[in-house]
Amino acid sequence: MVAAVCAGAVAAAVFAAGSGSDAGGYSMRTDARFAPSPSHAASAAITYDQTLVPSGSWIEVGQHIDPGGATTVRLRVTGMRPGHRYGVHVHQKPCGADPAAAGGHYQHRPSTDPADVNPRNEVWLDFQADRHGAGQAEARHDWGFRHAAASSVIIHDEQGGAGERVGCFTVPFGWVAPPG
């Protein structure tokens, strides 16, 4: 499915392709151009800080679920601040005009214990933008997302488990049905 939407002078293109949960697993890829927060209704990607995530910068997120349930998430970006170290995590809810709208980090084992904020229990896609503002990352886990529990990727201004939210991309993540 291909859809293009415009927000004033800023255009955001979104492409999502998925293949069903057959014997080959499931794959999805989607991308968009970042637009300022006031025009969030027309873009899946929102910038909250244009010095770190400029309008028009690009993001792509892909997901592959192996037949056994292991999940790989891939991130690619262009147009970011060259040399900056970004923290990126999968979050629980879709993006909104308020950076807090995306909720907390998706956790495989939901917990309020700060020790569970780590790349083994969450999907971390931290990267450093190269001299052209491009970056990429990949995370692989032997577990998959729960139904409707992972909905966006948040870009933070620093690497690790925290930092200010400077960009958000709503992503149609797939999930693994529990055995049974």
From TrEMBL:
Alphabetic keyword roster: Signal
Signal sequence: where? 1-16
SUPFAM superfamilies attached to this UniProt entry: Cu,Zn superoxide dismutase-like
The record ties this protein, via InterPro entries, to:
SOD-like_Cu/Zn_dom_sf (IPR036423)
Give the top-rank taxon of the lineage listed in the UniProt record for this protein: Bacteria
Family per record: Belongs to the Cu-Zn superoxide dismutase family.
Q: This chain belongs to which protein, by name?
A: Superoxide dismutase family protein
